[in-house]
Amino acid sequence: MNPPAFSSNAAAVTLSHFTWQSGFPAIGFAWQTWRSRGEYAEAEAIRLSTSVMSAACLQIGRSAVDHQAKDDNAVSKMRNNMALGWFYSPKQILHYFPSRFTSLKPPRQPLKNPWTIVKQLDSHQWNLFLVGLAGWSWDAFDFFTVSMTTTEIAKEFGEEPSAVTWGITITLMLRSVGALISGSICDRYGRKWIMIGNLVCFIVLELASGFTQNLSQLLGVRALYGIAMGGLLGPAAATALEDLPYDARGILSGLFQQGYAIGYLLAAVFYRAFVPTTPQGWRSLFWFGAGPPVLIIIWRALLPETNHFQVAKAEREERERQKREAAGSHTGAKKTDMFAFLKESNQAMRQNWFLFAYMVVLMTGFNSCSHGSQDLYPTFLKNQAGMSPTQVTVITVIGQIGALIGSTLMGYLSTFTGRRLAMMVSCVFGGAIVPAYMLPRGDKLIASVFFEQWFVGAVWGPIPVHLIELSPPVLRSFVLGVTYQLGNLASSASSTIEATIGERYPIAPAPNGDERYDYGKVIGIFLGAVWAYILFFTFLGPEMTQEERNEEAAATQEFENLRAQGVSLQEIGANRARMEGKSEKLELADEVEQLEDMEKATMKRAEGG
């Protein structure tokens, strides 16, 4: 490292140099704040001699290095141009925003055959992926039981459809509570049993929904269901994706995300099978929904914890054991392991708070897109377009098939084009098709729905792996689940807003005298705004760089090689902790040596001046 040129403001140059170039964002922020105090900073720089200031600089640098070594073990730093705290100063902001254009350039990655990619998976990885997908799909099925039966529930309870859609809204509002609780437990104790616990809640609450006697009871049960639903996504996504080979994460992320579409598709199919054909009507659909989670529970109970979690747990325990030995502490291992988890979690949140907020803003748009295009659409088809239950089922199924294909394809392509570019292209095409989604009538809607839902699915395809790539590993399930569900909370009123505003635009009554409303106009305007919102914030946001992807792929391959050699997961984790400790000591030595060289160069210039 070449030392900075010394001048009358040597302190500022030197401190700014080692702070930002050596990667100490916290010190840099403190120094920029101190420096901005104007006259006081300048007076201090003049008053202090060069040698004293250099010595102070060295001491601060050593303290910073020591602090970094003590507090930053195994905590993921901000990625994607965020490592230097781009939001702290105008200079960093000016560096970040122009890079949003250049960062869209696709990485130079060969396009691999998807069949070759998925053949890399072994039985352990396939089982965990499929059970996670099954849990997420049935999560979506249970959610869409209300949106598919809104008209029937409103008629039986003597309410407007807009009142029944509160059953959708209240579920969405409370999903973030479930994600907060479940994510915290999941990252500390594992993905397996918290996923099973949420599935047990599904069984109880779906049965209870079918026995409600008025709208107030239904809303109360759906509120509790929202907590259970919100708690499932984080464990299910982590279970499905974190043990996958790196190249397979894109395509299977798209397929996993479309567990939501699969759930919607199944809800549409079984709506047609049960609601018009059974004496219990809509209630039979809820009762049926309580059955399949039993099979998913048995399946998950027979499978082990994810390899990633077991290695991370062993790594954390070994790191704390080394600290106890160094300090001569006799504190119990369980107590120190909990302390280490809380400490690392706290530090991860402090370092990633801005990224966390961005992810919530982004997920607000994505959830508004899916709920705005899907939740009230069956009501639009039945009430405004005058379609029969069979026609509604056919169109819904075709739309979700489009979403399933689009999501899987774009998830696959995002590995080679980059996540953000893939999602932005989907936004442009999805927005262009909105008029065709609302204006035609009859069978012409089939093609429109297929392609609009294709791009709704496509924009969602890279999201699970994109969120995982942005999340700190120590809080992977928590951050993924909570940001997704807080976005759901912010978008929870989408269907209620559409229904309420739509009822302000009555149209000619149906032949049987039922009131009809122009829901299509409201859905179209809402979707156009949401597509523009997603495009803007996706462009603005960060993304894992190709260098980071290569490092991730290399680490994953190394892990698989060790596992193939018969090395236990616990030993892999312990070895990582030991290697990390050695690496930190070398980094400390390099930093101190660099600071000493800077001190000597600065003092030499001062003596020569």
Entry keywords:
609 residues; Growth Hormone, Chain: A; two-stranded antiparallel ribbon; 30 helices
Compact summary:
The chain crosses the membrane at residues 163-181, 193-211, 223-241, 253-273, 285-303, 353-373, 393-414, 421-439, 522-540. The chain is an all-alpha fold and 609 residues long.
Give the N-terminus to C-terminus distance in angstroms: 22 Å
**What coarse outline follows from CA principal-axis ratios?**
globular
Largest sheet: 2 strands, antiparallel
Number of domains: 2
By secondary-structure content and strand pairing, the structural class works out as: mainly alpha
Report the top-level CATH class of the largest domain.
Mainly Alpha
Approximately what portion of the residues adopt beta-strand conformation?
under 5%
Give the total of beta strands: 2
For the largest beta sheet, what order do the strands appear in spatially? 1-2
Average pLDDT over all residues: 77
CATH architecture of the largest domain, please?
Answer: Up-down Bundle
Low-confidence sequence ranges: 1-86
**How much helicity do the residues have?**
over 70%
CATH homologous superfamily designation of the largest domain: MFS general substrate transporter like domains
From the alpha carbons, calculate the radius of gyration and give it in angstroms: 28 Å
CATH topology name of the largest domain: Growth Hormone, Chain: A
Give the count of helical stretches: 30
Pfam families: Sugar_tr
Domain Major facilitator superfamily (MFS) profile: 128-545
Protein name: Major facilitator superfamily (MFS) profile domain-containing protein
Biased composition (Basic and acidic residues): 578-588, 597-609
